[in-house]
Amino acid sequence: MERTQGATLALYGAAALAEIAGCFAFWAWIRLDRSAWLVVPGVASLCLFAWLLTRADAEFAGRAYAAYGGVYIAASLLWLWLVEGARPDRWDAAGALICLGGAALILAGPRGG
Asked: Rg of the chain over CA atoms, in angstroms?
């Protein structure tokens, strides 16, 4: 089933949210001295992330993962701002834009022999 590029980006966005939330559960437990029970929903979130990424419309896993990487970086900076309360600076924004450009190139680049 072929998805539009917008649908693929939305899927990557959902996967990024699931991955970041899952990883942050471990961060909160180990680095912020929160309850170890946070790991339970964190692991579930990481499983959701892995499942969502398999839904990406790509012929090869490596290409899907590479394109996802740019979205993950931008989503991580949004998490930094919205959840952790630290506003990304211009270097963060510039780096994210470069990565999103690379992800777009990977997704939309012409394929062929």
From this structure: 15
8 A C-beta contact, residue 23 and residue 75: no
Quick one: CA torsion of 43, 46, 48, 51, rounded to 10 degrees?
-130
CA distances from 74 to 10, 25, 49, 55, 88 (A): 13, 19, 16, 20, 10
**Rounded CA gap, 43 and 36, in Å?**
12
Helix (H, G, I), strand (E, B) or coil at 103: helix
Which residue in this structure is represented by tokens 């790509």? 58
What dihedral do alpha carbons 94, 28, 37, 19 form, nearest 10°? 10
- pTM of the predicted model, to two decimals? 0.86
Residue pLDDT, tens place only, 78-99: 999 999 999 999 999 999 999 9
